[in-house]
Amino acid sequence: MWDANPQEFIVHYGISPGLAKRFQCTAEHVEARRDGGKDVAPNIVAACLFCNTTRHKAKHPVDAAEHASLVRSRLAKGRWHPSQVKAAFSQRIAPPV
Question: Is the pTM of the predicted complex or chain greater than 0.70?
Answer without folding.
Answer: no
